[in-house]
Here is the input.
Amino acid sequence: MSENRRTNDPEGVRRRIVAAAYDAFVTQGYLATGMLELRERASVSGGAMAHHFPVKRDLGLAVIRDRVSEAVRQTWIEPFHTGTNAPAAIDSIFESIIGELTQNGRVSGCPLNNMAMEISQHDAEMRGAVSAVFGAWHEALSASFETDVKENRARELNPQSLATLVIASYSGAMAMSKARQDVGPLIDCRVELAALLAAKYR
Amino acid sequence: MSENRRTNDPEGVRRRIVAAAYDAFVTQGYLATGMLELRERASVSGGAMAHHFPVKRDLGLAVIRDRVSEAVRQTWIEPFHTGTNAPAAIDSIFESIIGELTQNGRVSGCPLNNMAMEISQHDAEMRGAVSAVFGAWHEALSASFETDVKENRARELNPQSLATLVIASYSGAMAMSKARQDVGPLIDCRVELAALLAAKYR
DNA sequence: TCCTCAACAGGTCGATCATCCTGTTTTAAG
DNA sequence: CTTAAAACAGGATGATCGACCTGTTGAGGA
Here is the structure.
């Protein structure tokens, strides 16, 4: 009956906060984003914020575990379950990411890498959460390489170290592209990785 | 005659501030380091700090232009002027960095990459300074590759994109090593890059 | 010697930060 | 229906941030 009935939607409020925090952390950084700004972005009161995330650190952990890991999974793990071989999937991922960055005009960087660089020396638990996402990413890639070796699509190939190279070159290229605000480094790495993988897959 | 005679050493004070800021920015990050903390680290008064660096941004620019660029030059550009070919120099650089990180026990990351990730979306001028260092780095590497091609030590090689791959994979591997606090990713990339370059240089 | 300004000392300022507090409303168990 | 706890509202709080202020001391040119 009362008009301004109080919202009582725990999961929804929590999701709104985490979503707003993910956007802000990825585009501006963790430290550069204040809790007050997040309250406004998510349209929640101080009481609601304190209830769901008493300290900022908890929110950082939730963003990594819920959103960042999901983003990595969708863009870098899911494509390897479509049946194609690893080089084709990798090239397709680079292509779509370069396309997205080109059309929206600015490079905000790899979400995982952004979080990793800023927090890994401050908080051991957040560093662990970031490390776990890197681990899952690396595992998916190396498993894909290993499958290709077992099914004789490739040979003379170390799945572990090659997966590391792919992840590292992507992360580094994204960092360079972010610093230059230009997708050139990503394009270069796409070409070089494609040539490198083609050599191993023939 | 007076005992606590005031120090009057502009260059010295400035160098102490920039040195302290470089250490702090690289190990903790730019935003995580306060001006008060830097005053204490460099043992300078608020007046001296305000005189040399009225705003924090000026200090960030000085650190990038004086220290970060010099660090990149010493570790990643100087070795290519010793006469050896590019792959040998690159492998040697990886070896020494891995050795240093292993013996001092912790991974604080690539100074350039640390600064780049944190500030490139906040300040256009600092982003430009970071971008210039990346540019010098890339130019030195690609010039070294080009020399090797001209003198028939290598062929079928794109100096530009290959240089990007080397820088990106190093930066990315350093980011991963920092997140995991383990030099494994750097070792993997060293091995993979050595094999890749060996194939192009035979 | 006088004088000007860079160099430095020490403290202060408002703003913003993350966190916490009291009080009220909703939910759900008993 | 009662009641305890979760969910939320709307501030308040001390700490810390970057920036700045007035005053003093040094160096160097006229």
Summary: Residues 6-10, 13, 44-52 of chain B lie near DNA strand C (CB under 10 Å from a C1'). Chain B has nine helices and no strands. Chain B has a mean pLDDT of 95.
